[in-house]
Design brief:
Length: 247
């Protein structure tokens, strides 16, 4: 089996203007990237075309969300077809902020994943438990239920990256220890092996997100089942370059 290539995603969330994004891209465009690391940046949807037109083609571009159908009377939504028309080839789905701020259900996320994959977009599918769920000892139950819905909607796993983001670590400055991250990633891979196939378990990249910084990325990356990162706030700072370099 070929080794899994490392994956580093930068989720810019609802941040940036053209001027600041130009400055960020000018830095990213001069970075020496590892040939074995796939780097993808996710700007706000209104800047997808702008970013794809100005960012080095070595770096992929992702939308932060999409809807479950190609077109229609869905005010405020964007479709995979529109994302591709802007030159982007990835989308983030199931992020905790979509789940817990905007109330997206597992069912809806599964439908979005299905349509995005069918539309030949790469999908960064996010899963994660809240602090109270971890403290109650239900982390595995929560994650397996989220992955199950994704599994029911995916036939082409080569287009999917799983992103484990413990909700209690997103934007809080708290980070799962490398051992905690490895434990969860290892269990997720075992679940994929038991419920899908050895090939999928061995090939799907499982990345970690949750207050990843230049100072903690190396130790996290050293874990056997951590195949990369989904970076939030730090992806808007110069240290995103450090995270890519140290990965």
């Amino acid at each position: 089996m070929a080794p899994r290539s490392f994956f580093v995603g930068g989720n810019w969330k609802m941040n940036g203007k053209k001027e600041s994004l130009e400055e960020l891209m000018s830095v990213l465009n001069t970075v020496s990237l590892d040939d074995h690391t796939e780097v993808v940046c996710a700007p706000p949807s209104i800047y997808l075309d702008f970013v794809r037109s100005n960012l080095d083609p070595r770096i992929g571009v992702a939308a932060q969300n999409c809807y479950k159908v190609a077109k229609g009377a869905f005010t405020g939504e964007i479709s995979p077809a529109m994302i591709k028309d802007c030159g982007a080839d990835w989308v983030i789905l199931g992020h905790s902020e979509r789940r817990h701020v905007f109330g997206e259900s597992d069912e809806l996320i599964g439908q979005k994943v299905a349509h995005a994959v069918q539309s030949e977009l790469g999908v960064i599918a996010c899963i994660g438990e809240k602090l109270e769920q971890r403290e109650a000892g239900t982390t595995e139950e929560v994650l397996y239920a989220q992955v199950q819905v994704i599994t029911e909607n995916v036939k082409e796993w080569s287009r999917v990256v799983l992103a484990y983001e413990p909700v209690w670590a997103i934007g809080t400055g708290k980070t799962a220890t490398p051992e905690q991250a490895q434990e969860v990633h290892e269990k997720l891979r075992a679940w994929l092996r038991a419920n899908i196939s050895d090939d999928v378990a061995d090939s799907v990249r499982i990345i970690y997100g949750g207050s990843v910084t230049g100072s903690n990325c190396r130790e996290l990356a050293s874990q056997n089942d951590v195949d990369g990162f989904l970076v939030g706030g730090a992806s808007l700072k110069p240290e995103f370059v450090d995270i890519n370099a140290r990965a």
